[in-house]
Structures are given as C-alpha cells and as structure tokens.
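Write out this protein's structure.
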Amino acid sequence: MNKIFLISVFSILTLNVMAQEKIVQTAGRTQLVEFAPKFAELNDDVLFGEVWSRTNKLGLRDRSLVTVTSHPFRANRCR
C-alpha cells in the first residue's frame, strides 16, 4: 500500500514540477499575517521564494524527490 502511495505521489509531483517554472507559495500568509507578520514574510519570501526556488544546488525535481521520500521515514521516527 505504501509503495503504491509513494509511486502515485512521485508521479504527480514529477508531472507538476515539469510543468512549473516558478513556484509561487503563500503558505498561510493570510492567516499568519495578523498573528506573526514577520514569520509570514520569512516563510513565503525567504523559504519558498529564495531557498526552494534556487536551482544552483539541486534541481526542483530532485528536491521534490528528497522531500517526498524523507517524509515516511520522519513519520516512522516520530512514533
């Protein structure tokens, strides 16, 4: 079951990554801006804007693969 799930997620991410050129992410900025405006700015602009979108270290596809494959291991470790 986990293998099927990982394969389907990998396929979806691969297709989405190939279709994207620039990532536009607003991870809850509208909800966070009132509570923690600096965190909302850093989260959207620095983390997703600068760090995640740079391609000089790893390509977007490779970063997506690392993220998707590391998640089950992190979930198992937390149990």
